[in-house]
Amino acid sequence: MERKIIKTSDGSTTIQIVDWNEQYHSIHGAIQEAYHVFIKNGLSLFENESIAILEIGFGTGLNAIITSIESEKRNLKIDFVGVEAYPVNNEEILQLNYLEELNVPDYKDQFTEMHASEWGKPCEISETFSLTKQQKFFIDIKDVDAYNLIYFDAFGARVQPELWTEDIFLIMFKALKKNGVLVTYAAKGSVRRAMQAVGFQVERLPGPPGKREMLRATKLLNDIR
After folding, report:
1. Beta strands in the chain (DSSP E)
2. What does the DSSP 8-state code read for residue 192?
3. Three-state secondary structure call for residue 27
4. Which residue in 24, 25, 79, 207 has a CA-CA distance of 20 to 30 Å to 185?
């Protein structure tokens, strides 16, 4: 399928899959969306501790690099696992302008190492951030009680509805530790109901620019299956 780099409303770039009219990040602002959904409403729940994060859709590495930046600010030691079935190629990575837009030139080596690191092997990106990339389908995730936080950043249900089902969210539920949290940009009623069906307590929260709402799901102690 045809892919191209496009600029979003906040000046940051993303990858568009032309045949699907679908982007890796919001056209209303890739960086704004990432910070609103995954940092403000996810990572900000944790401070001064060691946590494990699972990202569903490693993609461009945007969520990983901003999480690494925030790990230092929040005194977090993060073990980050990014799952991706179809890795972004090097030519596309070189066209992404996240470091420039974030004004963090000192993180260039980190961002480069994130994409250059070997799949399937842990890589110490910094003193506060370790990355393991896994190339596989989401349905093949087998982790149990392993993560404090999940960034659910799959392509939208309009183009890949199979990624937003009860089967997938049960895998996510099992992968989270007690009181673990899943955050996603999605807000469809069918997605919320699928989350609730497997045991999550689900909140509707204000969405990022261009979206009215987003969802945050919690695996409460009394919901353990």
Report:
1. 3-7, 13-17, 22-23, 50-56, 77-83, 123-124, 129-134, 147-152, 176-184, 201-206, 213-218
2. H
3. coil
4. 79
d(CA 83, CA 12): 23
Tokens 């190629």 correspond to 89
Could you tell me the pLDDT band of residue 225, with boundaries at 50, 70 and 90? low
Is the C-alpha dihedral spanning 14, 58, 201, 129 positive or negative? Answer: negative
Predicted local confidence at residue 1, as pLDDT: 84
- Residue 154: both structure tokens together: 């799959």
Between helix 108-116 and helix 62-73 the angle, nearest 10°, is 130
State the alpha helices, DSSP H only, in the chain.
Answer: 30-34, 62-73, 90-93, 98-102, 108-116, 166-175, 189-197
CA dihedral defined by 86, 87, 90, 93, rounded to 10 degrees? 110
pLDDT at 88 over 70: yes
Identify residue 22 by its one-letter amino acid code. Answer: E
Angle, CA of 42, 162 and 205, to the nearest 5°: 30
Neighbours of 196 (CB within 10 A): 15
Assigned architecture for domain 29-90+105-223? 3-Layer(aba) Sandwich (3.40)
Alpha-carbon 6 to chain mean position? 20
